[in-house]
Amino acid sequence: MPEKKRKPQQLAWDSTGMSPLAQVQFEKYKRWLKEDMSAIQATPLVVLVWGPGRSGGDLFKKRLQIRDMLRQHGDVALFSEELDEVCKGYAASARGKELVQANRADFIVVIYGSPGSIAEVHDFGGFLDVLGSKMLVCIDSRYSDGYGYSGLLTELESRFKNVHKYTYPADIHECHLMSAVDERLKKLRLGKWWAVRLGRA
Predict the structure, then answer these.
(1) Could you tell me the residue ranges of all domains in the chain?
(2) Res 91: pLDDT
(3) Using N-to-C axis directions, what is the helix angle for 115-124 and 94-104, rounded to 10°?
(4) Residue 33 CB contacts under 8 Å (≥ 6 apart), including other chains
(5) What's the confidence (pLDDT) of residue 90?
(6) Mean pLDDT rounded to a whole number for the chain
(7) What is the domain class of 47-197 according to CATH?
(8) Looking at residue 88, what is its pLDDT?
(9) In angstroms, rounded to a whole number, what is the distance separating the alpha carbons of residues 164 and 5?
(10) Phi, psi angles (nearest 5°) of residue 175
(11) Which pLDDT score is estimated for 149?
């Protein structure tokens, strides 16, 4: 008969073998880790959500949904249109105002589906390490053969892996875009939490 394979020895993931003082410190360490993980999850981010306006149909509804879901999570999620009052005294073009907004934001979600949102990506995505790196550009896969995708978006994707191709209409009517946003924000929350701890944010 063939010899039965032995089960791998299970490692003890507890305080076995520790001294009483070490066990006290171990419990304290576990508590610290849980506190830090909770703090990371609760770290608010400032997120701009760019995309089609009210005339944009279901793409605008998806933009609204992303903004509202981020707000429910505790983030500061905004359309640039909502900052018009804040920026009205700044004597510059719309591009200049959005440049300032984008610079101060932690993250920018772009539904690449209107003349305005396409222009925003090409205006600001070119500032690769400063602004391009903090974008997540969502583009309809039907348009991934055009100049916009083969030019700047391909460069963003190759450097930062931040271009998400979605399938229309399925990914718009379901929550696939929100899942892509969530995955990106998890990493950013950790980074911002760490920056706050170091006094840099």
Answers:
(1) 47-197
(2) 66
(3) 60
(4) none
(5) 76
(6) 90
(7) alpha beta
(8) 83
(9) 45
(10) -105, 20
(11) 87
